[in-house]
Write a structure and sequence with these properties.
It is a single chain. The protein contains 17 helices and 20 strands. By secondary structure, it is an alpha/beta fold. The protein folds into three domains: 137 residues, Alpha-D-Glucose-1,6-Bisphosphate, Chain A, domain 3, CATH 3.40.120.10; 208 residues, Alpha-D-Glucose-1,6-Bisphosphate, Chain A, domain 3 (3-Layer(aba) Sandwich); 99 residues, Alpha-D-phosphohexomutase, C-terminal domain (TATA-Binding Protein, 2-Layer Sandwich), CATH 3.30.310.50. It has a six-stranded mixed sheet with strand order 1-5-4-2-3-6, with helices on both faces. Strand 14 and strand 15 form a beta hairpin. It is globular. The structure holds magnesium ion. Magnesium ion binds next to loops.
Amino acid sequence: MAERMFGTNGVRGVVNEYLTSELALKMGKAIGAVLRGKVAIATDTRVSGEMIRTAVSAGIMAVGFDVLDLGTVPTPALQYYIKTHTDVAGGVMITASHNPPQFNGIKCVLDDGTEASRVEESRIEELYADDIPSVAWNKVGKEEKITGAGEAYVDHVISLVDSEAIRNAGLTVCLDCSNGAAYQTSPMLLEKLNVRAITINCNSQGEFPGHPSEPTEDNLKDLKYMTKATKSDLGIAHDGDADRCVFVSSDGKYVSGDKSLALLAKYILSKEKGLVVTPVSSSSLVEEVVNANGGKVVYTAVGSPIVARKMMENGAVFGGEENGGLIFPDQQYCRDGAMSIAMMLECIVMSESLASQVAALPVYYTEKRKTDCPEEMKKPLLEHIEQIVTDVKAENLDGLKFNYSDGWVLVRPSGTEPIFRVYSESKNRDVAISRADSFEKLAWDFVDPEGLHLVKKALQKKKRTKKAPVNPQQSTL
Ligand code: MG
């Protein structure tokens, strides 16, 4: 069996260490051989984008297929282009999403615009390992530059919302693109919707200056401050490739992804009743809100392509993840940052401000823990926990989920790191904490019965608290 190269979001690594031009070229040949037709390609704003893109394109052309270069656009703009151009066999997005600037990645998209599943990825890995031959000199592919893919994507997003109502509302928002792929499309979307946008980190310097591109509360301090200070109706932030979107309310408060998922589910269900799909790791907040609004939640394993496929199979009206990845079936079956902005704008125009909507939500407390866990111990640890915890029956959709009368605990090994995760949620904070503590202890006792991690932790603490020596040069300045 060929070596596994695709993680949960494509092939990723540090550029010119793992992700070299040689790897990208070979990967391009394998992707071309699997897609077998015209391939659309795009990048986010990373400095290594062109190097990786041209290498992947050269590989695709070397096995005889044409390449359409869409330039720098968000991942969902590439997916929308592929979905709406029947002569395109699939695509490649060069991005490492929210990872630091030294990383980049290669993500494969199928002809319907959805992310490649494990089946296609395994096939690509097999062909990569075989190092497939190139075609004859007169059979190589050509590359064509395509302009306007970003604008066509934005226009379609606008066509799916009540644009007149948004245009007439006189809204002001603060927009933070983390200097990523939406630096042109999201300001364009807001301008076309007559929304005044105060922008930060909407440049394309490629090194993500400003803040790391994972849209967490800690990374969005400037956006929170600016949204409140400018009395904006909303703060909006994307991750690096803008398939995700999170919000800040007008009072400068960060709105977590499961809250925006719950609120948009409520809004969408007010127009059309149906199913909402989300992974088992999402807060019960989503289920409570969906049930109260005449919908039903369907749970899946963690991973946006899994959520998207479940939505397609069940004709769901909405779906998404707690990290700001929201999927709108009328637009396309993938996470879509611009569509999330447009729907949230319509939601606050038609309903109340985001701050009042968030204040009306039920409160849940979630505790997250992780323990070190080598790959070979992940499965035995899960089996051990299933044997030991007998007070409630476990669901095994992804890891093990224990549903108690006043909350739940999910334990699952990470798919990409030697880590075992524990999530505990309850409306009672003490219950959430004590269950997280006991499951974490259970995991540590199994992987490290001698308690070496406690010694390591104590040593690290000692090192941190040790006073730093005074630098004589500095002290004289
Ligand atoms: Mg992303």
